[in-house]
Structures are given as C-alpha cells and as structure tokens.
Amino acid sequence: MSLKVSPLLYRRHLLVTALAAGLPALNTLAQSRQTLRISTPAVPDDWHARMWTVLKEQLDKTAAGQFDTQIHLNASLFKQGAEPVAMARGNLEMSTLSAFDIAKIVPAFSIFTAGYVIRDPDHLMKVFNGPIGTELFRQVSEKMDVTVLAPIYYGTRQLNLREVRNVKTPADLKGVKLRMPGSKEWLFLGEALGATPTPLAFGEVYLGLKTGTIDGQDNPLPTVRSAKFYEVTRQITLTSHLVDGLFICVSNKLWNNLGAEQKVQLKSAAMAAANFNNENRIRDEQQLVAFFKQEGLSVTTPDVDAFRKTVQSAYLQSDYAKTWPAGLLERINNTR
Ligand code: KDO
Questions:
Q1: Whether pLDDT at 31 is above 70
Q2: Paired strand residues for 159
Q3: Which of 82, 139, 158, 327 is the most exposed place for a label (fewest CB within 10 A)?
Q4: 42 lines ligand 1 (CB under 6 A)
Q5: What angle is formed at CA 237 by the lines to CA 163 and CA 97, rounded to 5 degrees?
Q6: Which amino acid residue places its CA nearest to atom 9 of ligand 1?
C-alpha cells in the first residue's frame, strides 16, 4: 500500500483542516456582527431622523465592528405603519413606534393617543421613564415582540392650515379636511378636534396641501419646518392638542440574540439618540414661531380650554377609555 497521499486527497485534507480551524472565528464574527436595519418615515432634516446617526456613531465607537447600522429615511424601506409587523417578523431591526401604532395591539396605550393627557415634554419623560412606562413596555414586548429602548419627545402637535381661518373653538373646524395618518386611532383624534379627518401617509402630505386635496394637517412645529409644510400652508393654530411621544424600539428577534454587553451598548446608544432629539426639538419649538411668522404665516392662538374640554370629553366617552386600566389616568395626572 502506498503511503503517498494523492494530490486530490491532500487538497481535500488541507481544505477540511483550514475550514475546521477557521470556523470558530467565522462563527464568532457572524454572531457578533449584527445587521441593524432602521426604517422611519422621517425626513432627513428632522431631529428624529438625525438622531439615528447619533445612535450609529456611538455604536461604532462603543461596539466597534459589531453592528452594521443601516438607516433608511422617508419610509424608503417600510411604509409608515408597517414597521411593527416587520419588526415582529424579524424583517426590520429598529424603528420608532408611536402610541397609535402600539394602541392597536396594546389597547391601554390609547390613553397616550388622547389629546390633552400629557402636559409637556417633562411630564412625558417622567411617565415613560417611571413605573408606568416599565409596566406598559413589558406588555409591548410580550404582545408585539419588540423591546422599547427609549421614549423620545416627538413634539407638541399643532394645527397647520392651507388657508387663513378664524379658529377659536372646535366648532370652527367644522368641515375642514384635516389630514391624519391612516388608522382609526388617528382619525378619532381628528374628529375629536371638530374636523373632518382624512387619512393620508406622511410622505403625501406636502402634495396634498399644495394641490388642496386636504385643508390642513397637524404636526409639531419642528416637523412643519423640516417637511417644509410651511411652504404650502398659510396658518398655524397653536392648539397644542397632543404632546406626542415616539418609542425607539428593537425587534426581539435581534434583542434576544445579543450578549449582555451588546444590550447595554445598544440601549445606551438609543438613549444618546433620544437626548439629542429631545434637546434639539425642545429648543426648536421655542424658536420656530418667529421663523414661521417671518415666512409670512399667520400664527394664531385659539381658545385652548375650549379645545381641551371638547377633546377630553370625546375621549372619556369613547370606547378607548373603556380599555384604560382603572386608575391609570389618575396615575398619569399625578406624575410630577
Ligand atoms: C404623521 O404622519 O403625522 C407623523 O407625525 C405621525 C408620527 O407618529 C410619526 O410616524 C411621524 O409622522 C413620522 O416619523 C414623520 O415625522
């Protein structure tokens, strides 16, 4: 029997040995380099779009080489509202969800879709960074298969109309085609404000305002600026009807696959992104009225108490209120 190894067998032997030696290294690499696809309808210039770069840059420093962070703006990866299902299925790793997205699956969350419940950004942060947030985020994880990493302040929603109109009370919005995002929870808010709500995706609002298929929209002032709605509208009415939050979420499919240290790194990057967004947005909200006036818009203040009374009573009489756990509204009101 020849002791010579045939060149073919020898080549195979080399390949097997090389693979065996290389596999553990490859495995570690595959496990630790996580793809982080982020999808948002936000426009590039808005703070909750720019905050994702803050998250990416921090992760690239603290967890170098471990995350491949890919940011998709303008709803270019998933359309607005499709993100929760995409994350639950593991087709998307990260996004911001709204209280409206969450309320569809966790009905108690509809309390945060109700106008005039949260008082201001500070109240919002205290509610969600305290025990109420902890309890509700647990349900979000169980029912939606996503983990909330950080709440953010999206801003205080104001009315923004195509034509100048004397708006003092909800009765003055009768017949106004007010664009709202497309879900029944959003449409209810538009109705509670006294308008005729019209569903439309965020990306179509500019054209809708320009062509007149809608009479107005509602969004926080920084978004009215960054999405350039002020170019195609003539009035902002400071109803301040919803102090709106968003939630930086990660799919549990990814989250449960991370090591303890990676979890800390990702959460801390999300918190840095949230802080960046909140600081800039709050500062902007204080300065933007002057900007819009300079752009020729009429900025008016309605009878906010009249709006508050009408909107609050619409919610309290609605089926939404029946899903609010006993005592939750009082606990929110008492959070200081
Ligand atoms: C909007 O469509 O009006 C809205 O403000 C709803 C929010 O929940 C959020 O989806 C936001 O759009 C987008 O992030 C775009 O700013």
A1: no
A2: 218, 237
A3: 327
A4: yes
A5: 105
A6: 98
Q: Residue 139's Cα: distance from chain center in Å? A: 18
Q: How far apart are CA 28 and CA 317, in angstroms?
A: 56
Say which CATH architecture domain 34-333 belongs to: 3-Layer(aba) Sandwich (3.40)
Closest approach atom of ligand 1 to CA 223: 16
Strands (E), 203-234: 216-220
Q: Is the CB of 46 under 6 A from ligand 1?
A: yes
Angle 131-144/121-128 helices, nearest 10 degrees? 70
For ligand 1, whether the C-beta of 41 sits within 6 Å is yes
> Which pair of structure tokens corresponds to residue 59?
């992760």
Tell the residue nearest (CA) to atom 15 of ligand 1. 42
Q: How far is the CA of 81 from the centre of ligand 1 (A)?
A: 9
Q: What are the strands, taking DSSP E only, across 1-138?
A: 34-39, 67-72, 94-98
pLDDT, tens only, 295-315: 999 999 999 999 999 999 999
Is the minimum distance from the CB of 84 to ligand 1 under 6 angstroms?
no
Which residues lie across from 39 on neighbouring strands?
72
Angle between helices 47-62 and 260-294 (to 10 degrees): 150
Per-residue pLDDT, averaged over 66-86, amounts to: 98
Dihedral, 181, 187, 193, 197 alpha carbons, nearest 10: 80
Instruction: Answer whether residue 287 shows pLDDT above 70.
Output: yes
